[in-house]
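Quick question: what would this complex look like in 3D?
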Amino acid sequence: MSPRIAPALTALALLLATPARAGEMWITNELDDTISVLDTDSFEVLRTIPTGERPRGITFAPDGTVAYVCASDSDAVQVIDAETGEILHDLPSGEDPEQFALAPDGQHLWIANEDDAVTTVVDVSTRRVAAQIDVGIEPEGMAVSPDGSLAITTSETTNMAHWIDTATYEPVANTLVDTRPRDAEFAKDGAELWVSAEIGGTVTVFDVATQAQKTQVTFAIPGVNDDQIQPVGFAFTPDGHTAFVALGPANHVAVVNADTYEVEDYILVGRRVWHLAFDATGGKLFTTNGVSGDVTVIDVEGREAIQTVKVGRFPWGAALRP
Amino acid sequence: MRHAMAGTLLLAALLGANIAFGANLAGAEDLAVPVAYLRQEVERPPVLSDLDPVPGDEGVQGARLGLSDDATTGRFLGHDYTLSEVDVPVGGDLLSAAREALAGSRLLLIDAPAADLLRVADLPEAQGALLLNVGAPDDSLRDGDCRANVLHALPSLAMRADALSQFLLVRRWTEVALLAGPFAGDQAWAQALRDSATKFGLSLEDDRPWDFQGDLGRSAQSEIPLLTQDFAEHDVLLVADETGDFGRYVLFNTWEPRPVGGSEGIVPVAWSPVLENWGASQLQSRFADQAGRPMRPKDYAAWTALRAIGEAVTRTGSNDPAALRSYMLSPDFELDGFKGRPLSFRDWDGQLRQPIAIVQPRAMIAMAPFEEFLHQSNELDTLGRDRPESACRAFAP
C-alpha cells in the first residue's frame, strides 16, 4: 500500500465505523409481531423486523447497539441487534412483560410483569434475574429515577404507584392514584413523578421527596365525551418544560405546560393513541395509533400533525434509536 | 428472590396516599371487610342440546377473583377481605340462610330470582346492610320494586335489549321479527326486546311463540325453514330463548337468509370470553387460571360487585355499608371494568352502568352504546331505564 493513500483509507474506515445513517424510530406492532423502523426525516418505513409474540414495550441500550423488546406472549424480553435486526438472545423477564425501564447504569432492566403482579429486575450483562418484587395486580408503567435510586411500578387494577428502593429492592411506599394507572415518568431532574390514569382520565404529579400528590392535570376536549379521554403514554420535550400526553380513544395528544400544569393545546392524531417518542432533535414527535394502525408525526414547534405513516397492526411502543 | 411487602411499610403507604384513612392510620389493626355470597339454587328446565352445560360454580368464581383482586390492594392498605359462600338448595330455607349470612357480613352478594331477592332485601336483618344483585336481570327490580339496600351489578334486561336495538339501528336492520320461548325468562327477555324496539323505533313485523315439540337436533333442517316461511318480511330474526333450548337450531335454517339475534347469534352481553380489548385479556386469563373455564356474564357481575366493594373500601378507608353505599352512588366512584369506559352506579336505581358487548361466538361485533346515540350526561345511560323513565323512588334523597 502506498503511503499516500493510507491516510485516505484510514479516513474512509472511520467513516464506515460511524456511518451517517438516518434517524430511526422503532415502532412495535402488537398484533403483527413485528417492529417497523421509520426514517425520522423521510418518514418512510426502512425495514420491518420480526419479533416474538405481542411486542409492546421497547427501549434501547444507551449506546444504541441493541434494542430491548417486551415480547409479552413469548414471556421474554428480546435483545435485538440494532444494526442487523437479528434477535441475539432473550432475557429472563418473568411472565407477560409489558413495559420496562432501563436504569441509568444501562445494566438493570426493570420489567412490569402484567399477568403476574410482579416487577422483575434483570441484569442485562449476566442475563440473570436480580430480584422479583411483589406489586399490585397488572403492573404496567415502569420508571427509574435519573439518579438510579428509585424505581416506580404502577399497577392497573390495584390503582397504585409502588415506590421501590433500587439498592435493597424493597418497596418504600405504595400510593393510591386514579383508576387504571398506565405510565410513570420522572420530571424536573427527578424532583417530580408523573403518573397517567387511563380510566381516571388524569395525570397525577407527585413530589418525589415527600411522595405526596402535588397537583393533577385534567383534560377536556370540546365534542369528545369525558370518559373517552384516557391518558396513556406521555413524553417530555428535551428542555423538560412541555409534556405531550397521548389520550387513547380521544384520538388527541394533549400539550401540557410542565411548569404551570396547564393544558395548552390538543392535537388530533390517529385512533387510540398509545405512546409517543421524540426524534433526535426534539423537533418531531411520533405517536403510535393502535386502532388506525399508523403513526402520526407531529411538528413540535408548530404543534400540529404533519404526516401519517402506515405501519403494522396495533402499533404500541415507540423508541428512538440513539 | 421475591420480596414480600412488609407490614411496617404500611405507615409510609398511608402517609403517601392522598386520602384520609381514619382509624387505620395507626397501622396496627387491619380493617376487616367480610363479604358473603348467597345463592339460591334453581331448577333448570331440560334443554334440547347437552353441548353447553351451565357450570355449577357460575357467579361465585367471579366473586372469588374479585376478592383476590381486592385482597392484593388490601395487602398494601391493611384491609382484610374475606368471602363466605352460602348455597341454598332448591326448596331450602333461604331466609334463615340469609339471616345467618347477614349476621356475619353486612356486605352481601345475592344470586337469586327476583322474588327471592326481594324477600331477603326486606328482612329486618337486611336493613342497613348493602346487597349487590348478581343474578336477577329483571327490570322491575330497578323500577317500581327497587330497594334502597340493593345495588345491581348485573345489567338489566332493558340495558341488554337497548344495546341490541342500537346495534340494529346502526346497521339499519330496522324491521325485526320475534320468536319467543315459553319459559318466564324467555317471556321477560321477549318483552324487553319489544319495549326496546318501541323505544328506538324498530318495527316489529312479526311476533310468534315457540311451540314446536320434538328433538330439533335431528329435524332443524326441515322444521325451521317451514316454521319461518310465513313470517312477515324482516331484516333480522330475534330469538328469545334464555335457557338455551331451541335457539341454536334456528341459525342458518331460516326460510329467508336472515341474521339471528337476541339469545343466539348476535347477542348483547355484559361479558363474554371473546372480549380481548381494553385490557380484557388480562381479566380473562386471570379468571381462566383460577376457574379452569371461561368467564361468563354472571361471573363478571360478581367480579364487578366485589371490585366495587373493594374500590369503595380503598377510597373511603371504611367497612361501613352506609359509607360504602354513599361512596358508590357518588360521582367520585369509578370502576375499571375492562370495557373501555369507567363503570359507575346510577343514583336513581342503584344499577351499575356499563357498556354492553354485542358478540357472536367467535368475536366481539361491537360495543354499545354507539356514538350515534347521544345523551346529555352519560352515553351509558342510553342503555336501560334513564332517570326520567324510572319509577324507582327508594333512592331519592
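Answer marked as accepted. Residues 33 and 81 of chain B are 5 Å apart (CA to CA).
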